[in-house]
Amino acid sequence: MKKTLFSVSILSILLMACSKPTHNTSDDVQTVKPSASASVAPEQHATADTAQTSLDWAGEYKGLLPCADCAGIQTELELKADKTYELTEEYQGGKGSGQKFEVKGTFSFDKANPSIIVLDKAAENRKFFVGENYVEARSIDTGEKIHSSLDYKLTKELH
């Protein structure tokens, strides 16, 4: 008898705890309307931080990029604030040893991924990811990271 009474008491407490409240909380919320004289700030559109807006990307980047038939390509890429660039590449070792190529042109930030810059046709539309004090060569077709154990980064020269 005591077990039954105890079980019924516990069950009724649990049922009461799970029941809906009778008080409507929306009645407690007060709506405040601005007066006609109050100034309302115009809607502000949040802009996402991108490499273009949040990084100091202009500058000179240098490094040795991988090469299929040589020891590497000594590369210098200067990105200027007016969105122009100068690209200098010098082949190290192998057949093209000592050959130097210089290209100048313009670049743009990729619309789909604003952390990627795209060099113009003069530089074969090459793509680089822009990071904090470095750029990294990316796949020309997709802009995706090149999956390799080789280093595709150019480091920014800090003056």
TrEMBL record:
Protein's recorded name: NlpE C-terminal OB domain-containing protein
Family annotation (InterPro entries): Cu-R_lipoprotein_NlpE
Signal peptide stretch: 1-24
Keyword vocabulary terms for this entry: Signal
Organism domain of life: Bacteria
Parts forming coiled coils: none
Pfam families found in the cross-reference section: NlpE (PF04170)
